[in-house]
Amino acid sequence: MTTATRVFVARLAGIAVFDPNGDQVGRVRDVLARARTDGQPCRVIGIIAEIPAVRRIFIPMGRVTAMDADAVVLSTGTISLRRFEKRPGELLVLEELLDRRVDLPDGRYGTVVDIGMERERAGDWMLNRVAVREHTGRLTRRGHIQQLSWGDVPDLIGVPEEQGTASLLATMDNMRAADVANVLQDLDETRRFAVAAAFNDERLADVLQELPEHDQVEILTALDKERAADVLEEMDPDDAADLLHELPRSDQAELLGLMEPDEAHPVRQLLAYLPGTAGSLMTSEPIVLTPDATVAEALARIREPQLPPAVAAQVFVCRSPMQTPTGKYLGVAHFQSLLREPPAELVGGIVDNDIDPLSPDITMPEITRRMATYNLVAMPVVDDAGRLVGAVTVDDLLDHLLPRDWRDRGHD
Hints:
Layout: E1 6-8, E2 16-18, E3 24-34, E4 42-51, E5 55-60, E6 64-67, E7 71-74, E8 90-92, H1 93-97, E9 101-103, E10 109-119, E11 125-134, E12 145-149, H2 166-171, H3 177-186, H4 189-198, H5 201-208, H6 213-222, H7 225-234, H8 237-245, H9 249-258, H10 261-271, H11 278-281, E13 288-289, H12 295-302, E14 314-318, E15 329-334, H13 335-339, H14 364-373, E16 378-382, E17 388-393, H15 394-401
Helix pairs in contact: 3-5, 5-7, 7-9, 8-10, 14-15
């Protein structure tokens, strides 16, 4: 791997950080510099790396032996796993500089889309280039991008009069929702709300599901009610119900009233169950097939890419109707069983019904015991009439077994 002498910081976002043995340590989330207000280039003091789903850590630039747009490689030695906390006089390049509105030398203005850093002969990395998109004043035309020297943008450091979100959002395009949630928690409140509001409804719904409950509530209530209802429609019904549980009843009713009836119906059903029961934990949208469906049809359903792995691990076989609550529940066909059967075989002939399903009012300790006993990743939930009303998956269970603040970035 060759070491570049000039790197644009936004292109580093999300790339892997490796130790000398080739093992991945984490991913780059930002670059830390020593802030200056005299117009001179800022010295880069390190990178901020994300240990997956745990914390951000600081890695000094002296530990970086190679760096380009594909990877960062570290030298030998120990790495401090202490949670990164920014100190006075320090500057997070992506978080604080991207999307700032700045004045250009020709009297116009533009928006910062990237920051370039360059290695000097002495070995120090300095922030010395600023990529700025010119403002055109036309909605249909994107402005030309200029590369300016650091000194040409004297108002870059300091409290911005205006800071957008487009460039920061671009660094998150290929990030998992859980990683984006971690980034949002590290932003200040104003920036967090602005970035969250800039996501489309589907992306925001995915990210909200990965945030701590208090952050979910703060972001949702910062949206106008119509937009909040649209986002709730994009969430999984069980996650939407969990979020609505945190709101006052008057807000619950208003948001449910603004949702499309077909989207609100399963959420209302889940809200009716007592917290901590199978009914409140379950997803109301498992894969359901009738007994005359073929193995080929079942395999096609579990291959749908948007399905979580735990939901796609089996299909539940029921009499019509197929929407929950279904007709009579007959059993489950696990994907391993499906793989062993001819494609034309009917799923009704290979169902497993030896394990009693859960009732909606069964409590979490009993659910945990039964899923652990039978080594299952999901169990059906069946009402007194024998209808399938949902399924509890292992990820549903873990969300509620872990401490309430397990998603909180301030929690170790």
